[in-house]
Amino acid sequence: MSNSTKTETKTESTSSSTATGAAAPAAAFSAFAPFQDMWTDAVERMQQVAHAQQNLASMWVEAAGVTDQLVRAQQQMMSMWTDAASHGERLANQYAVVEKDLVARTQSTMAGWSQMAQDAVAYGAQLSTEGRKFGADTAKKMTAR
């Protein structure tokens, strides 16, 4: 029985000190009760600031992602312009070859037509000369009869 009596005594003394100890701090801070609302508002604002900072951090992460996308798009655009420039240069070189061939063929054709025109004029002159001779011979033969 002596053990149970000691346990009860300890329990009673602990409960009585807790009851008086809880009342003492509440009484000690009662002078700050008017500031409780201000404290609550300050805590809420600090939470809002923390939330805003988290939002800002996530926006920075998103902006970095968008920046990366923009850099990739610019690199792709530069690649396209480089490819377009090299393709344009190849096309210009091919056109120069075709144009050179076209000029050579045109000059060859014009030289052929010129030669044919000269030959036609020469043939016409030859026919005219032979026609005159034939006419003169015919006239001599007819007068000789």
Quick description:
The protein is 94% helix and 0% strand. It has 145 residues and is mostly helical. The protein is rod-shaped and about 170 Å long.
Structural write-up:
The chain is mainly alpha-helical. The protein has one domain (41-144). 94% of the residues lie in helices and 0% in strands. Residues 8-19 have low confidence and may be disordered.
Could you name the key traits of this structure?
mainly alpha; 0% strand; 145 residues; rod-shaped
Structural class: mainly alpha
Biggest sheet: strands, sense, closure?
A: none
- Radius of gyration computed on alpha carbons: 58 Å
Mean pLDDT: 83
Record field, number of beta strands: 0
Spans of at least 5 consecutive residues with low confidence? 8-19
Overall geometry: rod-shaped
- For the record, give the distance between the C-alpha atoms at the N and C termini, rounded to a whole number: 189 Å
Overall structural domain count: 1
Work out the helix count. 2
Helix content: over 70%
H/E series: HH
Proportion in β-strands? under 5%
Topology:
Blueprint: H1 2-28, H2 36-144
